[in-house]
Amino acid sequence: MNYPQVKPRKELSDKNKLLILAIYATSLIVFGFLVNTPAEIIGGIQKIIASPDTLISDYIGIGGLGAALVNSGSLTLIIIFIFHQVKLSINGFSIACLFTVAGFAFFGKNLFNVWFIVLGVCLYARIKKKSFTEVIYAAFFGTALAPVMSEILFSTKSLVLIRVPLGIAISLAIGFVLPPVSAHLLKVHQGFNLYNMGFTAGIVGTIVVSILNSYGIIPEPQMIWTRGNNKILGAYLFLLFSSMLITGIYLEKKPWGKFKQILEYSGQLVTDFVLLTGFGASLINMGINGFIATLYILLIGGDLNGPTMGGIFTVVGFSALGKHPKNILPILIGIYLGASVKQGNAHDPSMLLAALFGTTLAPIAGKYGLIWGIVAGFLHSSVVRSVGVLHGGLNLYNNGFGAGIVAAILIPIIEIFRTDQAKSV
């Protein structure tokens, strides 16, 4: 699809893009120190690092709100620094990666457990004679399996001399296999599951957990879920998304024209809005989707906490890489309907996360329309309930795993109907 090229008001360098993203990360840290004392935050981060991280482990409940915010902001700033040092070109993948890490640093990723997977990916790059920039997104998206390290180190009862090398070895091995496996599995769902690494991590995690189970190491899923922070977190999120809108409008000469262009794309991987429409237009889309995701949680009586903050941030990040209001709303409708007619309620923790993370199926709605988007969301609300047991809660991107299965089955079925319709015409 061809669009008239409208130049942004001011072309931003990668350095300036990172600066804006760093300001958002820093706001998390500042907010953390506003709600808790330094001593409380340090103690809270220690608790976060030393706790098992199987789903669902709300860091707000484990270490406190301030510690969860500082953990998220600090980890994101470290990765921004790495992006800067390797002179990475900042695009939709970069933004999706950063916000996904920031989000999951509220429930599962911390300043300690992510680096062994990253090192495993670095080892793969070294052996295959690739530069780190070629695998950098696999490295940081691949931290979906970071809880493996925490689980082995802090949940097993074997000697420390066994736990530490075992955890490091398994994490390195996971990081090593993720890049080639994720590239191969992309073909299975044809890019209709935006969280391809979640699908990959689910399969790899299933194998890892099966091996661990055979040696008597059985991960136990958790349910640490906090309530009562809707006002304070809601205020922060609304300020954050408002700043994205304002910044995006300032950067673009014709902001709403660019945003309208975004709505015309299906979102199927790879649809990089930063490259296609500009950084400013992407910020506008990110801000709007952030409002939609937050309002969804609040309007159905859900909780703003570590896990839902993770879901909202991931929606926002992938709003630079495939998601927009037109293709996420049908998925939200489908999941809401699915949750409403099955056991449980739409505001149950599992269904709140299914709604937020289930928007990974947005490209189905973007390409095939409203009805198929609703169908995809409806199916996802069932599938995601069952797949977590396969990886023992060690794959943080559980919805990406479930969505990969839904897309792999649903796309061929949709194509059958489309073929029959074409023949009838």
Q: What is the structure about, briefly put?
A:
With 425 residues, the protein is mostly helical.
Descriptive terms for the model:
disordered N terminus, 425 residues, 20 helices, mainly alpha, single chain
Describe this structure in words.
It contains 20 helices and no strands. With 425 residues, the protein is mainly alpha-helical. The chain has a domain of 201 residues.
Q: Beta-sheet strand percentage?
A: under 5%
Helix-strand pattern, N to C? HHHHHHHHHHHHHHHHHHHH
- Count of helical segments? 20
Classify the secondary structure makeup into a structural class. Answer: mainly alpha
Work out the radius of gyration: 20 Å
Distance from first to last alpha carbon: 24 Å
| Number of strand elements | 0
What is the averaged pLDDT score? 93
Shape: globular
Helix content: over 70%
pLDDT < 50 runs, ≥5 residues = 1-8
Largest beta-sheet characterization: none
What is the topological layout?
Elements: H1 14-35, H2 38-49, H3 59-63, H4 65-85, H5 92-104, H6 115-127, H7 132-141, H8 147-154, H9 160-189, H10 196-214, H11 230-251, H12 255-263, H13 273-277, H14 279-299, H15 306-317, H16 325-341, H17 349-357, H18 362-368, H19 370-387, H20 398-424
Helix pairs in contact: 1-4, 2-4, 4-5, 5-15, 6-7, 6-9, 8-9, 9-10, 10-20, 11-14, 12-14, 14-15, 15-17, 16-17, 16-18, 16-19, 17-19, 18-19, 19-20
